[in-house]
Specification:
two-stranded antiparallel sheet, 10 strands, globular, alpha+beta, about 30% strand, about 180 residues, 4-stranded mixed β-sheet
């Protein structure tokens, strides 16, 4: 639809992925509907097995490896071909950039559905609202093994962080 803008958010799996490349650890499609003024999000499981055409060669691999093999163009082509979605724009951040963005916002408030110890055991999250700095938000967004639904909950957590960032960006206190 001409009323929908699709933006692919890509979280790369290293500290300097923007400089040295990496896998797409997190893939979230944000769709902005100009007519209804609604935003919707969809998370792609990083281990989804997909068809890829890389440099003219047909292959199958996990979707998160397409960025490593061919950069953002290969990733976008893979998603467009497998899911029949047109991607208008993309934003890619690595771990360092993600932490810096959250810290620049003064942290974010996210709701956790579970009490859990996060990725690498560094942070503890409780059921309810948690105020997270950049490192804590990264741990919250990356964890998948602590949940009975694994990557499904991980995707929900990532979208919760994105929603919190959006809410923070439009808050009157940040505008001051």
């Amino acid at each position: 639809s001409k009323n929908v803008i699709n933006i692919l958010l890509v979280g790369l799996d290293s500290k300097d992925a923007l400089k040295y490349g990496g896998r797409s650890d997190s893939l979230i499609l944000v769709s902005l509907n100009k007519k209804t003024e609604k935003i919707s999000m969809c998370s792609f499981f990083r281990d989804s097995w997909c068809y890829m055409n890389l440099s003219g060669k047909d292959s199958y691999s996990k979707i998160n490896s397409s960025y490593l093999y061919g950069g953002p163009d290969a990733l976008i082509d893979t998603i467009e071909n497998n899911f029949k979605i047109d991607i208008d724009y993309y934003v890619a951040v690595d771990f360092s950039s993600f932490r810096d963005i959250i810290d620049a916002l003064g942290g974010v408030d996210v709701h956790s559905d579970f009490d859990f110890v996060g990725y690498h055991g560094k942070h503890h999250y409780v059921v309810g609202i948690n105020h997270l700095n950049g490192a804590q938000a990264l741990g919250f967004a990356r964890e998948r093994y602590a949940f009975p639904t694994g990557d499904n909950q991980r995707g929900k957590n990532q979208m919760a962080v994105i929603n919190a960032m959006i809410n923070k960006l439009v808050s009157p206190e940040l505008l001051k």
